[in-house]
Design goal:
This protein is an alpha/beta fold and 344 residues long. The longest helix is centred in the C-terminal third of the chain and has 21 residues.
Length: 344
């Protein structure tokens, strides 16, 4: 995938209190396919060639800042006064040579480098002041609706809580993924108000102000509506993980791996498996595990950060942070941990 042009930065909004997750752990640190949820977003930005990454976090999110301190700059949003307010906090951190910024949210783990590159490319080619990705859902729920005129041009974005009954029937939604021209859009943060149901500063109001000023604004429908899947509670987490699990199993099967029963098999995205390996039911394979060719794995196996060689047979075993050499037939009910002396 080609890298984006230079001078593009990104701001990731990650300052929510995560109250609906009912957890002591910051929502952004919730594991999603073996890595913190926000890591999926930062990885997508890095893969898209983003030159500067700024994360807006809450004051209590020390674990988040510690986990990502080498990959991003952090700014703290002490008061949660909305998405526009979060961007206000990040404004002074953006490097002076950055021409355009991507703004994303940290709880959308399906965002991809492909989608980010598409947004940046369309934004730059059309010299837009602002561009945003949109998707369509049959039941849009709490998403903000994209309102267009008869010519199909975006007029505004209306939050669900502020939408009329007719506007709530709109299927095209805003997924909070924007590209802004820094010089044209960011000064407008000073014009934002809180005349809305939430009494908050909305990023979406920047869109409306730009349109009133006659600037070019693009709402870009994206073909894969999974990029708009956000996670606010554990039900949504489970549903999103199910989508990701199916995608990953399909990817492995297309690459030459046999999975006997996808409905009872759990494999992290970070796992690599060689051709002609067969995975039997009730196998749990996690955290950078590497499996060679022509293996028989399962049933009832758990592999965590394991290195499995070629032609290995493993049934009813647990392997954690260990390597298993080529041709090994593991005895059932073996528990192997911390054996790295033999390279798989």
């Amino acid at each position: 995938m080609p890298k984006t042009q230079p001078l593009v930065g990104a701001v990731i909004l990650a300052a929510g209190k995560s109250t609906r997750m009912k957890s002591k752990t910051n929502k952004m640190m919730t594991l999603f396919e073996g890595k913190p949820m926000i890591r999926r977003v930062t990885d997508a930005c890095q893969d898209a060639g983003i030159t500067q990454l700024v994360i807006v976090s809450g004051p209590e999110a020390q674990d988040l800042r510690h986990a990502l301190k080498n990959d991003a700059e952090f700014v703290i949003q002490h008061e949660r006064l909305g998405t526009g307010h979060a961007l206000m906090q990040a404004k002074s951190f953006i490097n002076k040579n950055i021409e355009n910024i991507i703004v994303l949210v940290g709880d959308h783990p399906f965002i991809s480098a492909e989608a980010i590159n598409y947004l940046i490319s369309e934004h730059q080619q059309n010299a837009a002041a602002a561009s945003l990705l949109t998707v369509s859902y049959e039941n849009p729920g709490s998403y903000g609706r994209v309102v267009r005129n008869q010519l199909g041009k975006i007029v505004r974005i209306v939050e669900n809580k502020d939408a009329s009954e007719d506007e709530k029937k709109i299927n095209e939604v805003n997924i909070s993924t924007y590209c802004f021209n820094v010089k044209k859009a960011l000064p407008l943060l000073e014009e934002l108000g809180t005349n809305n149901a939430q009494k908050e500063y909305y990023i979406t109001d920047i869109i409306e102000i730009l349109l009133k000023k006659g600037e070019r604004v693009q709402a870009l429908p994206y073909y894969d509506n999974r990029i708009g899947i956000g996670i606010n509670n554990r039900v949504e987490l489970a549903n999103a993980l199910q989508v990701a699990r199916v995608d990953n199993l399909n990817r492995l099967m297309v690459s030459g791996v046999t999975i006997i029963d996808p409905n009872s098999t759990y494999i992290d995205f970070s796992v690599t498996i060689g051709q002609d390996t067969v995975i039997y039911p009730f196998s749990y394979i996690e955290k950078e595990t590497r499996i060679g060719n022509d293996c028989q794995i399962g049933p009832n196996v758990r592999l965590t950060d394991a290195g499995i060689g070629n032609n290995v047979i493993a049934e009813f075993v647990v392997v954690e942070s260990s390597d298993v050499p080529d041709g090994t037939i593991m005895q059932p009910f073996t528990y192997l941990k911390g054996h790295r002396s033999i390279k798989a």
